[in-house]
Design a protein that fits this description.
Blueprint (H helix, E strand, L loop, with lengths): L1 E4 L9 E2 L3 E2 L2 E2 L11 E16 L6 E4 L5 E6 L2 E6 L5 E5 L13 E6 L5 E6 L10 E5 L4 E6 L5 E6 L5 E6 L2 E6 L4 E6 L12 H6 L8 E7 L5 E6 L7 E12 L11 E2 L11 H9 L9 E8 L5 E8 L6 E12 L5 E12 L16
Parallel strand pairs: 2-18
Antiparallel strand pairs: 1-5, 3-4, 5-20, 6-7, 7-8, 8-9, 10-11, 11-12, 12-13, 14-15, 15-16, 16-17, 18-19, 19-20, 21-25, 22-23, 23-24, 24-25
Length: 363
């Protein structure tokens, strides 16, 4: 796997086919701890792209603080720093004495303190050396083999980190890490493990066009960082993209001046349709097959409406894309008054990287 920095985000939404296995939410965490912020995925920042050998990523997991990401692809297991994409450990993965290759990873979970990782494996008709493995993330070494060759699919840590729950065979089992033995059996995962920040909803709102369906998703416990894996149609191999949500203070606030250049407001009356007003003043003037216009709208916690309009693939020698943010304040009788407009762009030849959103003049 190789990694490269990305500095901006384009427009539109990703798509993911979610899955529930014996009640565990894919990509979810124990109940959300959102604090006083509201993540905004339509304006998320693309932190990094990690290129993965092959066509598919099997599993992703993020540590509870979002600091590290675990990536499983073609049986290979990697731990990387989410903030830099730097490789921390390459783990041995799962094997079988019956075949000369690594087995697919079917589940990943970080411990609550981020100090260890549990991985699950299942390959029909092939017995694994261990269907559950516990890894020490300080050293990258294997701590425990669990579950024998039972074929495990989903996995999660208990809230105290002392046990691991796994869907192995025909039921769900709780393994006490102190002994390595099954301490409890159930028909499904405990209720507290079935609810958490919704990775699928976050992925659907990502500002990235033509991203394609996700193979795997993982959302940090605070709901602020998202790991997405898939194979975009224009890429030769699978990618892992690490996203950081825009966290808006609960009290609202205006657009940061260093992120968007505030521009003069048009003389307009209050409107019942903020999106239509945004498209009328800042959208495409005439259709062309190259430029893609995307508009999103969401209600902020302070009661204002935030509309984002993006134009990607502009027919311009220097400016590749333009993005506008419009804040509408409540007026009377269900109408909204435009109160602020900010603008930024992506340049073809600098002064910034091609994917970076900037307020600087393009060369």
């Amino acid at each position: 796997m190789s990694h490269r920095n990305s500095y901006g985000a384009r427009s539109c939404a990703g798509v993911w086919g979610g899955a529930f296995v014996l009640g565990l939410v894919a990509g979810g965490w124990l109940g959300p701890a959102m604090g006083n912020t509201t993540p905004g995925w339509t304006q998320a920042q693309l932190l990094h792209e990690i290129e993965v050998e092959g066509e598919r990523v099997e599993q992703l997991a993020l540590s509870s603080d979002g600091a590290r990401v675990a990536i499983a692809a073609h049986g290979n297991l990697e731990i990387r720093e989410a903030s830099t994409g730097e490789l921390v450990h390459r783990l041995e993965g799962h094997h079988s004495p019956e075949v000369d290759r690594q087995l697919p990873v079917t589940g990943l979970a970080f411990s609550p303190d981020g100090g260890s990782l549990v991985s699950a494996s299942w390959n029909p008709g092939v017995a694994a050396d261990a269907s559950l493995k516990l890894w020490d993330l300080a050293t990258g070494k294997l701590l425990q083999d669990l579950a024998g060759d039972q074929e495990c699919r989903e996995v999660a840590f208990s809230a105290d980190g002392a046990s691991v729950w796994a869907a192995c065979g025909a039921d769900v089992q709780r393994y006490a890490l102190e002994t390595g033995h099954v301490a409890e059996r159930a028909e499904s995962f405990p209720a507290e493990l079935q609810h958490g920040p919704d990775a699928e909803t976050a992925a659907d709102a990502l500002p990235m066009p033509r991203q394609g369906p996700a193979h795997a998703l993982a959302l940090s416990k605070d709901g602020i960082r998202l790991a997405w894996a898939g194979k975009p149609p224009t890429f030769p191999a699978a990618l892992v993209r690490l996203w950081q949500a825009e966290a808006s203070p609960a009290g609202g606030g205006t657009l940061p001046a260093n992120d968007y250049q505030l521009i003069e407001l048009p003389e307009v009356e209050a409107t019942e349709d903020p999106v239509a007003l945004a498209r009328r003043h800042y959208g495409m003037r005439e259709f062309n097959p190259v430029t893609v216009e995307t508009v999103t709208q969401r209600m902020r916690q302070d009661g204002d409406i935030l509309v984002t309009l993006s134009l990607d693939g502009l027919k311009d020698d220097s400016v590749r894309a333009m993005r506008y943010r419009l804040i509408f304040n409540p007026a009377s009788k269900g109408r909204w008054q435009l109160g602020e407009v900010g603008r930024q762009q992506q340049c073809r030849r600098g002064p910034t990287e091609p994917d970076a959103w900037t307020t600087a003049l393009c060369h």
